[in-house]
Amino acid sequence: MAFEFKNLPYAYDALEPHIDAKTMEIHHSKHHKTYFDKFTDAVKGTPAENQPLEQVLKELDASKGPVRNNGGGFYNHNLFWLCMSPAGNRTPSGKLGDAVNQTFGSYDNLKQKINDAGVGRFGSGFVWLISNSAGTLEDNPLMPFAEKRGTPVFCVDVWEHAYYLKFQNRRPEYLNSFWNVASWKHAEEIYARIAH
Amino acid sequence: MLSATFRALRRAERLGTAMAVRMKHTLPDLPYDYNALEPYISAEIMKLHHQKHHNAYVTNLNIAEEKLAEALAKKNLSQVISLQPALKFNGGGHINHSLFWQVLSPTGGGEPKGDLMDLIRREYGLFENMKNELINSTVAIQGSGWGWLGYNPTSGRLRINTTANQDPLEPTTGLIPLFGIDVWEHAYYLQYKNVRADYVKAIFNVADWENVTKRLHAAKMAN
């Protein structure tokens, strides 16, 4: 089973004016691609080479630096692109929508919680919505040593490279802009598979 | 600056006053213009880095210390402990950036002389070896952090080390920082984008080895 570096499901400029084309291009073709290259290199000749990515992360040994950092980066960005779209699915609906209301009270409350977590994150990382709460983590929640484990449903990248060209230090402004392109379609599909 | 604050706090407590005496931290001026380190670090980056990022650490450090003073006055230990991450992050950010501006200079570059060079040769053989090790360690940092050339006051030897986020070198490792390289993406992204290695190599063109030597002398004298 080969790992695949996929194109974005939309053009680099498709999220303008909320997320700029230059950022999308560098973020995908440089940062994400580098994670992919280094990850596939790191697992070459090991059993992980033929496993699904989720399994590699779930069984990860924390000390395996290159696999952890690059496998995480590879997975995290795969999901992140699917959390955005040029149009549609701006609000979680169906089973996920119900769960959001039940856990957070409302979608607005969830957005606030994600914004607070993103702004409050010291340094680099992602904000994750995992199957039971929203919080910031650097490691992917599938990893056995992650602070909070669970199945990632939705995420927001708050590494500076995700927003610096357009927003510079203004991370709160980036997060507000992000909601204009947030897409919940993929999250609903994930949640429908794991919800009982 | 932080130690002055704690001395002031203890003085206030000895006087039996409930109100803590606190001196606010301030943003230091750069010793050169924003464009002085071009073409190695752009004026745009220097301005944002100083006026926005460093300034935010100073502001938030003052806020955290204000809250710390209240928590100490109320003897609220839980609150004191919960403030530690913000103190470490913003205090570290202030310490690190205050040093960073000083160890860079438009007239920097080249190689150190005198006892700093002697110490480098003793540890690494050649200056190039030290430079390469510092570059490699710094580029390899995952996420945000700093690369350091540090001085071990116990052994009198140089040591290359890295810290995560804004963790300051001395409080977290005991090494005294001589030269530091900020590799938070905000330090280079607008100019170098994802190519961190180019930035880290370029910064040696503006390394102020005289200032670094002064720090080495101060470290030796203090120990």
Instruction: Summarize model confidence as the mean pLDDT of chain B.
Output: 93
What is the total tally of β strands of chain A? Answer: 3
User: How big a fraction of the residues of chain A is strand?
Assistant: 5-15%
- Rg measurement of chain B, Å: 19 Å
Multimerization state: heterodimer
Low-confidence runs of at least 5 consecutive residues of chain A? none
Structural class of chain B: mainly alpha
Q: Number of helical runs of chain B?
A: 10
| General shape of chain A | globular
For the biggest β-sheet of chain B, the strand order reads 2-1-3
What's the number of structural domains of chain A?
2
The CATH homologous superfamily of the largest domain in chain B corresponds to Iron/manganese superoxide dismutase, C-terminal domain
Q: Return the domain count of chain B.
A: 2
Mean pLDDT of chain A: 92
Q: Strand order within the widest sheet of chain A?
A: 2-1-3
The coarse overall form of chain B would be globular
N- and C-termini, Cα separation of chain A: 30 Å
In the CATH hierarchy, what is the architecture of the largest domain in chain B at level 2? 3-Layer(bab) Sandwich
Number-wise, the strands of chain B total 3
In CATH, what is the homologous superfamily of the largest domain in chain A? Answer: Iron/manganese superoxide dismutase, C-terminal domain
Quick structural summary:
The complex is a heterodimer of chains A (196) and B (223). Chain A has 196 residues and is mainly alpha-helical.
